[in-house]
Specification:
Blueprint: E1 12-13, E2 16-17, E3 22-23, E4 37-41, E5 46-49, E6 58-61, E7 65-68, H1 74-85, E8 90-91, E9 97-101, E10 104-106, E11 111-113, H2 125-131, E12 142-150, E13 158-161, E14 168-177, E15 181-186, E16 193-195, E17 198-200, E18 204-209, E19 213-217, H3 220-223, E20 226-229, E21 238-246, H4 257-267
Parallel strand pairs: 4-18
Antiparallel strand pairs: 1-6, 2-3, 4-5, 5-6, 7-19, 8-9, 9-12, 10-11, 12-21, 13-20, 14-19, 14-21, 15-18, 15-20, 16-17
Protein name: AlkB homolog 4, lysine demethylase
GO molecular function: actin binding; demethylase activity; oxidoreductase activity
Cofactor: Fe(2+)
Length: 275
């Protein structure tokens, strides 16, 4: 598919743009340094250079991000977090705590079994139904749910990473609860983005996630760009619910479709407790 191509994105030079609220003549592109920051603008699907940096006035298309604001009401958010807090949270890496609902996986050996998995939690059933009403999430069948709890006092963060794609499918869906944060997208492969002729090996795109928003990463944003959350972007307690679907290998017609179907039947019983 097109998401696996390595063509450099087209760069747009924004000289005057009302929605950016300022007329601007960009700096010559050769002045851009590695690590310049861009901000994702959902309405336009562009990563736009931050003001007062050499990237100001530049933008490039940034496909593969869907952001739905106010996905839940405040009352629904409070009820969800209350339900999660009734189960124990396990310590995780980088100051996070977690609750997992999913199969037992060894990614290095590519081994998978149901283990203690008895399904996604009952409180997720309505969320999943609501998500699937969006065209980009049509046919989305979550087989795994991971709840993460971030607190500034614990220095909670998550390092830049790409989610596995042997087991997990194209769409990664996360619900951001209790406080706003920033998803930092970086692309540091050897096929670095060529901003004109300037190799910007570590361009960062900030995707601002409001409280109670739902974000979906797919296509290039899923397979080419690492995502992270830095400590400085955790200002208050943040709870995140991430849902993952199965890859084609475990789906209908795939090599392991029977195991995939068994795991989906378990997941979608919505009778689960954290494993």
């Amino acid at each position: 598919g097109s998401q696996h191509t390595n063509h450099p994105p087209e760069i747009l030079q924004i000289k005057t743009c009302a929605s950016l609220d300022r007329p601007h003549v960009p700096a010559p592109f050769s002045l851009l340094q590695d690590g310049e920051t861009f901000t994702y603008r959902p309405a336009r699907g562009l990563a736009v250079g931050d003001p007062h940096t050499a990237a100001a006035g530049w933008a490039f298309p940034f496909p593969g991000v869907l952001l739905l604001e106010d996905f839940l009401s405040r009352a629904e958010e409070a009820e969800l977090v209350r339900a999660m807090d009734q189960d124990p949270w396990k310590p995780s890496q980088s100051g996070r705590r977690k609750q997992d609902y999913g199969p037992k996986v060894n990614f290095k050996k590519q081994k998978l079994r149901a283990g203690c998995f008895v399904g996604l939690p009952s409180f997720s059933q309505d969320i999943v139904k609501r998500m699937k009403a969006h065209p980009i999430l049509e046919g989305f069948l979550p087989v795994e749910q991971c709840n993460l709890d971030y607190l500034p006092e614990r220095g909670s963060a998550i390092d830049p990473h790409l989610d596995d794609w042997w087991l997990w499918g194209e769409r990664l869906v996360s619900l951001n609860l209790l406080s706003k944060t920033v998803l930092s997208m970086s692309c540091d492969s050897e096929n670095s983005i060529q901003l004109f002729l300037v190799p910007c090996k570590e361009v960062t795109v900030a995707v601002h996630l409001p409280r109670r928003s739902l974000v979906v990463l797919y296509g290039a944003a899923r397979y080419k760009w690492k995502h992270a959350i830095h400590r400085k972007h955790i200002e208050h307690r943040r709870v995140c619910i991430t849902f993952r679907e199965l890859s084609t290998e475990f789906s209908l017609g795939g090599k392991h479709e029977n195991l995939g179907k068994e795991l989906l039947d378990i997941a979608l019983s919505f009778q689960g407790k954290p494993v």
